[in-house]
Amino acid sequence: MAVPAQHVPAVRISSPTGRWILLTTVLGSSMAMLDSTVVNVALPTIGRDLNADLAALQWTVNAYMVTLAGLILLGGSLGDHYGRRKVFVLGVIWFAAASLLCGLAPNSGVLITARALQGIGGALLTPGSLALIQASFHPDDRGRAVGLWSGFGGIGAAVGPFLGGWLVDGPGWRWVFLLNVPLALICAPVAVRHVPESSDGRAHGRFDVPGAVLGALALALVTYALVEASSGSLVVVLSAVLGVLAAVAFVYVEKRSPDPMLPPDIFASRQFTAVNVVTLCVYAAFGGFFFLTALQLQVVVGYSALGAGTALLPTTALMLLLSARSGELGERIGPRIPLTVGPLLCAAGMLLMLRVGPGASYVPDVLPALLVLGLGMVALVAPLTATVLASVETSRAGLASGVNNAAARAAGLVAVAALPLLAGMGPEAYRSAAAFDAAFRRAMPLCAAVLVVGAAIAFTTVRRPAPDCRRPECRTHGCVTSPPVEPGRARTGTAGPGRP
């Protein structure tokens, strides 16, 4: 039987159990984080091997994001009720099984289906890894444990594109997914043997399954309509209409549900709402940028998969090295300036990418753009997280962080669906260097414009939080696809992220 969170043994980091907990939670979260960063560099090879068009490559990314973004809040609640270790282990096993199916996929349809299943596993294990740390470690050690967890996770995010490129050029793209299987074979048994079980003793077992299903369905239908919009078929129109109706139904269900996955009253805070709108702008631009840039470097510039993955390392490296200092600066001067300057720097970095075309050299052409982009990301990510947490009551910090993370992922998947359409990319664009380069040059200003809008919203709406506001615990962060999921302290004092 799961032990209520307040009765879980107070584990110390220096103990063998503490080290085992850190190992299994880092391995589990790294599986999901690696997958979100390595797949982009494998896309051209996947397309050639499976004879897939651009829409199939978009869905290879978005099928995972749809289920992950739609279910991540529900995943945290399931762990609170049924046991965080149990749900975490289930997520690890589910993720590994779906990864195996990805690695064995004979065609793009099977791969896309398996990626959607991967997202379900990710929604179970991502909030669970941090919740286990919060529920297991002694209060004096929790801050350090969370710091180690986020730091090692950031290193995993930095290594991801490099590792993905090496696998694609070496054993083959299928090993990008198959690598998760041995990681799971280590992670799951260690969790079962060494990680204490915990749950929320006040959890009542009512889950907002209709809300989760409607949210994921709305994202899937709208994404499908955007990806297939160029065909102009009746199916596309119906998908768009049904997607909007599902979104309206989601809002209605959340308002009427006694235990909503996304309580509408959390948006009563104008600052929370504004920062999430900024998040949508920022991570929509990031999602579109990293999707297209990995293709641009390979299709147009002629990089190998390993070369493209290595080329993107500076952005993550800068975040790892400077994110903590950026957070400290944001605490001193307030979030308004970082959340304004950061997106503008990122916009400048994306405009500098217009220099990256046929025959481009890395140091004079590619590196300056990525350094400016990385500095912009450093400036905004930590203050954005701090402002989200400061905008709500401390007891809702986990929920606020989960909402912000889900918003970022949803923005990224919509951008990956919409940006090729807006830039005029045809189904076979990635097979032609000239066609893809022309579309890329139309896409980068669009990404920059969205970032400028985000900066304007931040400048006009974000204010300095109260001096006693909650500070982020994940101070070292390296993931470029979403802000960090922060631990929450809900009613029992140790609820994990995403707990409604």
From TrEMBL:
Topology versus the membrane: Multi-pass membrane protein
Transmembrane segment boundaries: 20-43, 55-75, 87-106, 112-133, 145-167, 173-195, 207-227, 233-253, 274-295, 301-324, 336-354, 366-390, 402-423, 443-462
GO CC, any one term: plasma membrane
Residue spans of biased composition, Low complexity class: 490-500
Keyword hit for Cell membrane: yes
Highest taxon, organism lineage: Bacteria
Keywords tagged on the record: Antibiotic resistance, Cell membrane, Membrane, Transmembrane, Transmembrane helix, Transport
A Pfam family that the UniProt record links to this protein: MFS_1
InterPro entries (UniProt xref): EmrB-like (IPR004638), MFS (IPR011701), MFS_dom (IPR020846), MFS_trans_sf (IPR036259)
GO biological process: one example: response to antibiotic
Positions of the UniProt region annotated as Disordered: 479-500
Transport is among the record's keywords: yes
GO molecular function, one term: transmembrane transporter activity
Localization per Swiss-Prot or TrEMBL: Cell membrane
Domain Major facilitator superfamily (MFS) profile: 21-466
PANTHER family reported in the protein's UniProt record: EXPORT PROTEIN (PTHR42718:SF42), MAJOR FACILITATOR SUPERFAMILY MULTIDRUG TRANSPORTER MFSC (PTHR42718)
Name of the featured protein: MFS transporter
Taxonomy of the source species: Bacteria, Bacillati, Actinomycetota, Actinomycetes, Kitasatosporales
